[in-house]
Amino acid sequence: MIKRVGVAGFDRRALLKVGAAAGLAQVAAPFVISARGEAPIKIGVANPLTGTYAAPGKNESIGMQLAVDQLNAKNGILGRQIELLAEDSTSGDAGAAVQKTRKLIERDNVDFLVGNVNSALAQAMAQVSNEKGVLHIVPGGHTDPITGTDCKWNVFRVCNTTRMEANAVSDLLFKTYGKKWHFITPDYAFGHTLYQGCEADLKKLGGTVTGNELTPLGTTDFSAYLIKARAANPDVLVVLVQGNDMVNCLKQISQFGIDKQIHVAGTQQELEPVEAMPPEARVGVWMFEWYWKQAAGTPGLDQFIAETRKRSGGKVPTARTWFGYVTIHAYALACEKAKTIEAKAAAKALADLELPPEIKLQPNKVYFRGGDHQLMLSAFLGELLQTGDGDPENLFKVNSIVAGDSIAPSVADTGCKMNMPA
Amino acid sequence: MLQLIFFNVTNGLIIGAFYALMAIGLSLILNLSGVINFAHGGFLVIGGYLAYALTPRLGFWGALIVAPFLTALIGFAVERLLIRRLYGRDPLYSLLLTFGLAFIIEDGTRQIWGANGLPFSVPAALTSPLSYQFFFITGYRMFMVAMVAVVVALLFVLLRYTRIGVRIRAGTLDLETVAALGVNVRALRSLNFAVGIFLAGLAGVLAAGQIGLEPTMGDALLMPSFIAIIVGGVGSLTGTLLGGLLIGVASGLTAVIFPSASEAVIYVMMAIVLLVRPRGLLGEEGMLT
Fold first, then answer.
1. Closest by alpha carbon to A294, among A382, A168, A374, A165?
2. pLDDT (tens digit, 9 = 90+) per residue, A111-142?
3. Beta-carbon count within 10 A of A65 CB
4. Set of chain B residues whose Cβ sits within 8 Å of the Cβ of A188
5. B135 vs A contacts (CB less than 8 Å)
6. This prediction's pTM
7. Are B43 and B195 in contact (CB under 8 A)?
8. Is the complex ipTM more than 0.90?
9. Long-range contacts: B145-150, Cβ < 8 Å, 24+?
10. Would you call B127 and A219 a contact, using CB atoms and an 8 Å cutoff?
11. Which residue of A has its CA nearest to B107?
């Protein structure tokens, strides 16, 4: 081009244009070079940024951004930089989540999809990603069907299934606390499958259910349910509600002094609600899906905590941070293993992928199970600490760390019939 | 079973008293200014968070007094800067404005205090239950009911026996005539709005002691408050008080018999009242038409 202008004779205007273009090219040099290289890999995230699940959504984002920063500092994935595109899925509007997912896939052409905290939204997103053939990891939606009856070749999950959570805790509760259980269950997909799991385990152990209080999501006052629960006189009050509902429920349990009369326990507990409770409400035996305070010398753990603090206003990582972190690293590892980011090949590489020590950040073997695409992550069993054990940030005393495959039902029992495309 | 019902009626009255506190604030604003304040839950959240921020310096009791006043001050500013521009227009405008404000407040608190909830404790003296038998009547809940009773009593005295109160009541019935008689209606409305927001702020501090303090905590409390107004009757503060107590008891009782309907029952009540007696139990004919 430049040569032709010269040959065509010196027109002052053309010369100025060329000069300006050459000058601009100098200034814009770094961009030109990156444009000449391969385009970045786009990761689309549709997760709650507003509403009830904003806090877990935010922490998953912190974990994802940390993993992206680490990978980009080390040449990205297959030599390509990674770009994170985040959309607000809302906390409970499946329509909005689907719309954002379509936008990410159709307009932004993302190579990989992440979401959602809410089980129902995760299921809705999985329909879209499957239809479009985009690899999709669900970092933190627990309901069973995602890697059970509704499992799909392109969909993987990092967090536990509700069945794994029930299995992790039931035995311990039965042996230490007694055999009459009363449940406080959130009235939606997550709660229903979690209750079914606990009930099945309890029946197998020979215990009885004295009642199951189904509470609407977003319940602020649990007193009517607690009055009923106490009247039934159970050995254990099993609290299955999550998030803000968990905060409200435990706060009221402790104000009513119920924890001093009946054992209070539950399955899944998270650091987000525990931090939001006053000390007196932090009671009971629970399961965490990942916990930051572990044996000294766990590979990569100190660095993970330090890097998280930099991005979270000084706070320690939660299981949610770890979910986000694992999601991105698992995708990167699968692509490197498959030597391509093409969805089918990457999905094949992700099935049976074992996480290396500096990613899994815990003692047991952690891997994706090929049969249902469920991550076999450990369960951290223990008790809540009211004011921390000499460390105000340490609010959970881990008694044991149980390997994921020892609490997961077999692939056949999940009801998953995986259909990998050729 | 009888005991369970008695427990839940008592418990429902306690919850209802709280709904009433919020609903009366809403009702005040609606009656005089014709504004359906969708941001009322947001102001409740502001009250709670301000109390949280003030507690380390002033203690719970100090925060309980100061936080509602600060919330009222913010409410006053909002009325002066935004709401007042929409008086006299279609109510839809102020509804949209307060709806937007609710979002702004929610995200604003999230920006300032973080998305995660914050631990808010009440004084230990108030947390213990009254007795083993009546475990659900804690010192704190008794205190809440007492606060509501005192505030409502004060409000009724204010409205009945003071010059401002008489003007607010008169304005509720016929604002134009009140204005024609030389009363500064603009100032009256600002003050009235601030009083309504004060009640929201107070409700926020009280709520934070019992439920989790987080940016969306007002959402779940807003709808029952609107329903309390409709059931009790638009234009009548006594009606609003009654409406709040009624829906509290109704949802408490339903929780014994058919738990999954405990939320829906208040909407059913509203529907029945609207069908049988559209002006509400104690409402005056022709209000807000």
1. A382
2. 999 999 999 999 999 999 999 999 999 999 99
3. 18
4. none
5. 230, 256-258, 261
6. 0.86
7. no
8. no
9. B145/B13, B145/B14, B145/B17, B147/B21, B147/B202, B147/B206, B148/B17, B148/B18, B148/B20, B148/B21, B149/B17
10. no
11. A50
